[in-house]
Amino acid sequence: MRVLAVANQKGGVGKTTTAINLGTALAAVGERVLLVDADPQGNASTGLGVPRQNRKVSLYDVMMGETPLTEAAVRTALPGLDLVPADGDLAGVELELGQAARRSYRLRDAFEVLRASGKYSYVLIDCPPSLNLLTVNAMTAADAVFVPLQCEFFALEGLTQLMRTVEMVRGSLNPRLEIQGVVLTMYDRRNSLSEQVAKDVRSHFGDKVYETVIPRNVRVSEAPSFGKPVLIYDLKCAGSQAYLKLAREVVGRERERRRVAA
What we know:
Blueprint (H helix, E strand, L loop, with lengths): L1 E5 L8 H14 L4 E5 L5 H5 L11 H5 L5 H4 L1 E2 L5 E4 L8 H5 L8 H12 L4 E5 L6 H9 L2 E7 L2 H20 L5 E10 L4 H14 L3 E7 L2 H5 L7 H4 L4 H24 L1
Parallel strand pairs: 1-5, 1-6, 2-4, 2-5, 6-7, 7-8
Antiparallel strand pairs: 3-4
Helix pairs in contact: 1-12, 6-7
């Protein structure tokens, strides 16, 4: 099981959209996927068609030790893709846990049974767009960080902050944490700035940047309002095809990583 924290401390970079659609695309190519919604806004849950009134058990209950992660996971309408939903209660976790023992390890501890079960090949954690206890828990539980990066200037500043956070977590909580990869989102070929940002990111991170880029696409933006991933909303649009290509690239790189490790 490979646990990826989908994270970027800057908001509006396509983080939740990427978590939803990458998870869907991975399931579409035959992987068994669990999406953990770790954002109190619960947008990933809404985007997968799970209304708030149906979120009887959420990640909040898992973090507070009241429900095992396996019991909090619900099936989505998509075969091969399950969800641990989030709701507004999650915003109180930091205050409620206070100075509780292993407060930064709550999610990692909850994953232990899941890892042993072999039920999922990928777990994606949709992190909130800030550095808080939820983000720290996600990175402590994860094998690697998956970074969506919007093709605009200020996104590069957010990436610098994220790298500092990864180093902090690696140094004190999770020494095995690594950068899985950076995916460029909201790419507009008509905009020279998009091309310049992409060039700068590739020169800095090299092959950590995925070849696949996610284009700015209106169908991707429309899909969440219908409670559907874009692959279900419009399979043939450019956004859907890009996420399918990204999923294949993620799986291919993961197989190569395992081969080298073996």
